[in-house]
Amino acid sequence: MAAVQTAAVVKVEEFVGSSPTSFSDAVRNVVRRASQTLRNIRGVEVISSNAEVGSDGELTLYKVNCKVAFIVEDH
After folding, report:
1. For the whole model, what pTM was predicted?
2. DSSP state string for 2-20
């Protein structure tokens, strides 16, 4: 069973991610990249999303603005 944390300080950082495939992949890219330098990530909130449109009318790049929340470690 996981330990229950009674009190924690959570910090929120903002990131922008992109993907040529989908908005979901763009969010995954944000979390994957953030996890390379941040520990204890607990959540992600998509603040906004937009896409670039090619000359043929197809979506070419999906972009998301996200807030990533992580627990600040005690030292």
Report:
1. 0.84
2. PPPPS---EEEEEEEEEES
